[in-house]
Amino acid sequence: MELGLVGLGKMGGNMRERIRRAGHTVVGYDRNPDLADVHSLEELVGKLQAPRVVWVMVPAGEPTRTTIDALAELLEPGDVVVDGGNSRWTDDEKHARKLAEKGIGFVDCGVSGGVWGLENGYALMYGGDAEHIARVQPVFDALKPEGDFGAVHAGRVGAGHFAKMVHNGIEYAMMQAYAEGWELLEKVDFVDNVREVFRSWQDGTVIRSWLLDLAVNALDEDEHLEKLRGYAEDSGEGRWTVEAAIDNAVPMPAITAALFARFSSRQEDSPQMKMVAALRNQFGGHAVATKQ
């Protein structure tokens, strides 16, 4: 099938390549002309045969809103827009209503996989009407990991981004647990090889995971994380998860504590945040703050 893809950064660029490897045609647009296949959204839409599918992969908030507003004026009834960024689920219904007024479908899709997704596949959580999901299904099949798992129609519009938000909240708590354990092991003077302790957990333990593998990768690159400052950003989805927990009276102490720990990293050089920062860089290519 044909797909228009708007946003060709670290995620979007690799997604374009993976979809093409599956035999589909992708027309990509990015503000950076060195990355783009076309020079404008107008040209992108013009190169696609109706009914079209256009996937938006730009930062959440105003960039996504302005892109969808522009597509609403360019697309035709029967076309479908997919928001694959990290938009807040509350924006999805607004986008769906705006597009529906013009007969255009809307699907929200949470995407996880970071810089490793090109080779390993992307975990996909999508929301929307079944007819719109069916139109995009060949692309979902191209992006997902091999096997029976890794993709889900989570529910109606908004469900995909809500599921991805909760996924990221859980990720916060898991990273924080590894970081706290690493700091305690580093603190005592009778554990001689913390990196190898972490490595030993990769097989046979109940805490083995891909995040643990990435922690070992980070320690192989910088055994005591001495090159990093103990500073970690929060993407926004951790905050949204905690806010949703409050709105629904769901106790969420671990995720809330992990979010607050990131806030504390902006006040001091936190050893735990060195590990969190290293993990974010390993799985997502997120920038890290290094010591001067």
From TrEMBL:
<dbReference type="InterPro" id="IPR013328">
    <property type="entry name" value="6PGD_dom2"/>
</dbReference>
<keyword id="KW-0311">Gluconate utilization</keyword>
<dbReference type="InterPro" id="IPR006115">
    <property type="entry name" value="6PGDH_NADP-bd"/>
</dbReference>
<keyword id="KW-0560">Oxidoreductase</keyword>
<comment type="similarity">
    <text>Belongs to the 6-phosphogluconate dehydrogenase family.</text>
</comment>
<protein>
    <submittedName>
        <fullName>Decarboxylating 6-phosphogluconate dehydrogenase</fullName>
    </submittedName>
</protein>
<comment type="similarity">
    <text>Belongs to the HIBADH-related family.</text>
</comment>
<dbReference type="InterPro" id="IPR006184">
    <property type="entry name" value="6PGdom_BS"/>
</dbReference>
<dbReference type="Pfam" id="PF03446">
    <property type="entry name" value="NAD_binding_2"/>
</dbReference>
<dbReference type="Pfam" id="PF00393">
    <property type="entry name" value="6PGD"/>
</dbReference>
<dbReference type="InterPro" id="IPR036291">
    <property type="entry name" value="NAD(P)-bd_dom_sf"/>
</dbReference>
<dbReference type="InterPro" id="IPR004849">
    <property type="entry name" value="6DGDH_YqeC"/>
</dbReference>
<dbReference type="InterPro" id="IPR015815">
    <property type="entry name" value="HIBADH-related"/>
</dbReference>
<dbReference type="InterPro" id="IPR006183">
    <property type="entry name" value="Pgluconate_DH"/>
</dbReference>
<feature type="domain" description="6-phosphogluconate dehydrogenase C-terminal">
    <location>
        <begin position="160"/>
        <end position="287"/>
    </location>
</feature>
<dbReference type="InterPro" id="IPR006114">
    <property type="entry name" value="6PGDH_C"/>
</dbReference>
<dbReference type="InterPro" id="IPR008927">
    <property type="entry name" value="6-PGluconate_DH-like_C_sf"/>
</dbReference>
